[in-house]
Each structure stands twice: as structure tokens, then as C-alpha cells.
Write a structure and sequence with these properties.
Strand content: 25-35%
CATH superfamily of the largest domain: ATP-grasp fold, B domain
Distance between the termini: 48 Å
Largest sheet: 6 strands, antiparallel
Number of helices: 12
Number of strands: 24
Radius of gyration: 21 Å
CATH topology of the largest domain: D-amino Acid Aminotransferase, Chain A, domain 1
Length: 425
């Protein structure tokens, strides 16, 4: 197998983790990332002048730099059809699903209807295309709490858990009237609230066959004790301490196998990463959502544990792919997200970051940049989620301790983070 130039599309902690993992492959020639961030530019060539939603510009960049593989980190290009574009207009391989398959993430309504059609366990729901119909439903039938979801892409923030009618109506008006999530909130889903433990499951698909990555647990809410608004993720741990063999068996039989066969029934030939957001209620799994790319910050705790060469898997998948053996380090990982004060709403940027040099060379700590930029030798904040600090250890407690001790050494004005990542009942 020859060496390839590889291009990553995206700018967050997930893309930094992907760059870090792919950079270790002997099959990598040169690594590029558009637009990248301050941390990524230390291991890949970055370019902020190209808009990743301008597929023609991405193609020109790829041709100019002799790219053999494009790995799409962010969901927006996938939902907008970048895979279809390159299949039609180029010989360059793009790792990700086509536009039709990406609708599983691009539309909550499409996904929920898919689950219901194929008898995949999910929370009961109703869909609404008008504010008045949604409010009428709430006033006549809703049992609180309920979950209100924007139909389209909202960077992980388009989910509201509301506890009374006043909160519910306010959330609906924010989505459908005030356009808080632009066009993503023009249609909404109102879903029964499921109380339990969240679980992230990622499947690596090649032409309909799949292998499972190790699961992880994500912390979506901004504040300790799962309070505050939903975010793109404030931390993660892999694998979850409470996940036992019986539950894994249920997930495989009730959700994963059904989902894989349903994709074939619908003629969806999936290639890429299928991310399942699950809720475990009374030891029974339900699927809440699907993403069609690597999770963020799930990738930051899963990829460091993967022994296999990810680039080799993508470039030269062994057939049948479902029998590809994945091997894992016998370690635990915890990710603590350092965010800007005010995230996920209003926050300031351009704050100098100090302390990163104290972590250089530590084998049990990885720092993935999510929202940073670099000016000379100085890093600055450039987003809501700034840094992902990952600790690795032989036990969950050790990995958690390593992550939090490392996080304390990093400073920037307005730094915030949850203090309960990795604490379990």
C-alpha cells in the first residue's frame, strides 16, 4: 500500500484527535487540515482561506496538494452532499456517507421516523411544522418533562429539556419564531423524556458492513450535576464503568443489528462512522439520535485507546470488513473540556492560554485543541470549547485524576469546566 496525502475537514477537538491518530500511520505522506486550529497546525498543514462548504474550492485544494483521501470531521459538508460531489467530479476518496445517508443526522424527523418504521426502540415523539400546532399539543397532551429538538443541525445545542408549559412554549418560540438555530428550528420534534444514563456508541462502516468502536459516556449539559443548557459535550469517559455484558448484548440485538439491516432494506449503502446516542433506562437501551461522523468529544477518548492503524483501515479495508479485528489498549480515558465563560451562548475569545508547556512530554496526558489559534509561540482562545484535556490510566479513577490535575495547569481568562466528569452513581 502506497503512502497518501490526507486532508481532514474541520477545526475542533475531534479533528485534532483525528490528525493525531492519522499522523502516526506509516501510510501517511503529508497531512492537511482545513481550516484547522492552533493545535492542529503543529502536526498538519492548515489553511483557513478555504471554505469547507465550497466543494469546488475543496476539490481545487485537494488536486493542488495531491490528496488521496479526505476525512470529513464536521457534519455540515456530509449533510450537504460532499461525498456525492466528489464521486461525481473527482477520483479522490472521501471517507463518509452520501447525502441521503447523512439525512439520519441532518433531520431528527427523518431519523425518528426511521427508528419507528424499523421497530428500533426510541422515545415516543410527535413532529411539528408550525408553532401553533406544537403549543396546542403541549397544552392538551404533554406530560412534563419533555424534550424539544430542532429538526436540523444545531452543533449539538438544539435539544431543550423543559419541565413545564412556560419553559416549553419559550423554547418553541425561540426555535420557530426567533430562529435561534436558523433554519434548523423551522421543524421540531417533541419527545417523551427518558430518564437514565447516556451512552455513545460508534460503528465504523464500510459499504454496509461494520465493526464496533469501544463505547463511551458523554456529558452534554454545561454545568455540574447535569444542569444548565445542552452543549456539544463538556467531557467524556471510555469505556463506561457501568456497562456490563448483558447491556451490551441488548444494544447489539435490539439496536445495532436492527439498524444495520434496516439500512440495507432502505438501500442505504453506508460508509463512514455511524454514531449512536443511546439512553439506558432501567437497564433497557433506547436510541435518541444518530450522527454520521466521529463523535466530539467521544473521539478524544476512543481514538487514543485504538491500537489499529486507522488510516490503514480506511485506505485498505479487509473484506469482509465485519471481521476486521480491532484491538484496544487495556486503559481508561477521561476527557475534561475547558470552555470559555458563557459557553454555549455568549463568550469572549482572544484570551491568552498559558500552562500547556507544563504538559509537554507526559505520556498519560493528551491535549486536543478545540477552539484555539496560534500567533507566534502563543496560543489564544478562539471558540466556546477551547481545549480537551485527556487523561489515561489503568483505572477510571486514575484517568480522571490525571485529566483534572492536567486541566488545573492550564489557564486562560474565563476558563470554565465541569468538575464531575467521570463521577458515577
Amino acid at each position: 500500500m502506497t503512502k497518501e496525502n490526507v486532508l481532514i475537514l474541520g477545526s475542533g477537538g475531534r479533528e485534532h484527535a483525528l490528525c493525531w491518530k492519522l499522523s502516526k500511520s506509516p501510510y501517511l505522506k503529508e497531512l492537511y487540515c482545513i481550516p484547522g486550529n492552533g493545535g492542529i497546525e503543529t502536526i498538519a498543514h492548515t489553511d483557513t482561506s478555504v471554505d469547507i462548504m465550497n466543494f469546488e474550492a475543496v476539490k481545487r485544494f485537494a488536486i493542488d496538494h495531491e490528496i488521496g483521501l479526505i476525512v470529513v470531521g464536521k457534519e455540515n459538508p456530509l449533510v450537504s452532499g460532499i461525498v456525492d460531489y466528489f464521486k461525481k467530479n473527482s477520483e479522490i476518496k472521501v471517507f463518509g456517507p452520501n447525502q441521503h445517508a447523512a439525512t439520519l443526522e441532518g433531520s431528527k424527523i427523518f431519523a425518528k421516523n426511521f427508528f419507528m418504521k424499523h421497530d428500533i426502540p426510541t422515545a415516543p415523539y410527535q413532529t411539528f411544522f408550525s408553532k401553533d400546532d406544537a403549543i396546542y399539543y403541549l397544552r392538551s397532551q404533554a406530560m412534563y418533562p419533555v424534550v424539544i429538538k430542532a429538526d436540523g443541525l444545531a452543533q449539538g445545542k438544539g435539544v431543550m429539556i423543559v419541565h413545564n408549559e412556560e419553559e416549553a412554549i419559550h423554547s418553541i418560540k425561540e426555535m420557530m419564531d426567533s430562529k435561534r438555530f436558523q433554519s434548523a428550528g423551522e421543524k421540531i420534534v417533541i419527545e417523551n423524556f427518558l430518564d437514565g444514563k447516556e451512552l455513545s456508541y460508534q460503528l465504523l462502516f464500510m459499504d454496509g458492513e461494520y465493526v464496533e468502536l469501544i463505547p463511551s459516556v458523554d456529558y452534554k449539559r454545561a454545568l455540574d450535576d447535569n444542569e444548565g443548557p445542552n452543549t456539544g459535550g463538556m467531557g467524556n469517559m471510555a469505556p463506561p464503568p457501568w456497562l456490563d455484558d448483558d447491556l451490551i448484548k441488548q444494544i447489539k440485538n435490539k439496536i445495532i443489528k436492527k439498524l444495520a439491516s434496516s439500512l440495507k432494506i432502505e438501500g442505504i449503502q453506508f460508509t463512514g462512522v455511524l454514531f449512536l446516542g443511546l439512553m439506558i433506562c432501567q437497564n433497557t437501551p433506547y436510541i435518541l439520535e444518530i450522527n454520521v461522523r466521529f463523535g466530539d468529544p467521544e473521539s478524544q477518548v476512543v481514538l487514543p485507546l485504538l491500537k489499529n492503524d486507522l488510516l490503514e483501515i480506511i485506505l485498505n479495508p479487509k473484506i469482509p470488513f465485519s471481521e476486521t479485528p480491532l484491538t484496544w489498549l487495556n486503559k481508561k480515558t477521561t476527557c475534561v473540556v475547558l470552555a470559555s465563560k458563557g459557553y454555549p451562548d455568549h463568550y469572549e475569545i482572544d484570551k491568552p492560554i498559558t500552562g500547556l508547556e507544563k504538559l509537554a512530554g507526559k505520556d498519560n496526558v493528551l491535549v486536543f485543541h478545540a477552539g484555539t489559534k496560534k500567533n507566534g509561540n502563543q496560543y489564544f482562545t478562539n471558540g466556546g470549547r477551547v481545549l480537551n484535556v485527556v487523561g489515561m490510566g489503568d483505572t477510571w479513577q486514575e484517568s480522571r485524576q490525571v485529566a483534572y490535575e492536567a486541566a488545573k495547569l492550564i489557564h486562560f481568562d474565563g476558563k470554565t469546566n465541569r468538575t464531575d466528569i467521570g463521577l458515577f452513581e
